Amino acid sequence: MSETATARERRTGRRALIIAVPVALVSIAPLLWALVSSVRPGEDIFRFLSPLTWQTVVPQRLTLANFTAVLDSPFALALLNSVIVAFFSVVLGLAVAALAAFALACLDFPGRTAVFALMVMCFLVPFEAIAIPLSTTFRDLGLANSYLGLILPALGNGLSIFLLRQFFMGIPTSLGEAARLDGLSWFGVFRRIYLPLSRGPLIGAGLILFVFQWQSFLWPLLIAPAPAVRVAPVAIADFAQETGVDFGQMFAAAILTAAIPLLLLLFFQRHFTGSTATSGSKE
Predict the structure, then answer these.
(1) Can you tell me the distance from the alpha carbon of 256 to that of 119, in angstroms, rounded to the nearest whole number?
(2) For residue range 144-167, what is the model confidence (pLDDT) as tens digits?
(3) Does domain 68-278 have CATH number 1.10.3720.10?
(4) Please, where in the chain does CATH 1.10.3720.10 lie?
(5) Given its phi and psi angles, is residue 111 left (phi above 0), alpha (psi -120 to 50 degrees) or beta?
(6) What is the pLDDT of residues 48-66, one digit of tens each?
(7) Which one of 1, 11, 128, 213 has the fewest beta carbons within 10 angstroms of its own beta carbon?
(8) pTM (predicted TM-score)
């Protein structure tokens, strides 16, 4: 019986591998081509696209001139702006999300279910649908071309609140009740019990906030087009000029922009998958 089960598992594994490998290759192909193009001279970028050969993904001539030019251009400031905006968006956004999730999960107040339902409905609405009227409001408040204008919309991320609320609801209520009997305030319960138990979900929520803010294009384009506060996704578009497009530098800028979240996701992937797996767990 055990041999039959083992053989079945091996066949299932082989089938999964047959499906997974082509899917992985198709998924990684655009990124691989962009990486190869970023270290090629400009005249070689589209030279080997038709027909496709091994030279399409294996450069014959390597150069770091594209990366050097990008780092010597205003894009370096834009990349730094992205880091600053993403960092404060994560720190402040996690504080707001954790407090809101704790209130929705643990505090019994009138209309709690309605508030949660409204929050879920709000984060299901595409941000692009409200971006233009919201940008007009921000300009009226004097928040255009400022870090604050870039950061504020990220502070009420409904998905991160939902993730943390589901985890908080899985923590036994007896822990909070015992702490309350010992004289702790609700904020003390949150700080001393819930936060220490929520490292994984907090990292997961932080990664969600980071990725949402890092890849944002429309909002920074609307509210902060000035060169001093321009972020990396908007600055990449600057490599397309009226006289032509410098694809080598554009690919180099795209690779630099993608490298930071990629490294973070690889470093924190265990915590992220663990946080999503335990959301809503009662154990």
Answers:
(1) 34
(2) 999 999 999 888 888 888 889 988
(3) yes
(4) 68-278
(5) left
(6) 777 777 777 777 788 888 8
(7) 1
(8) 0.82
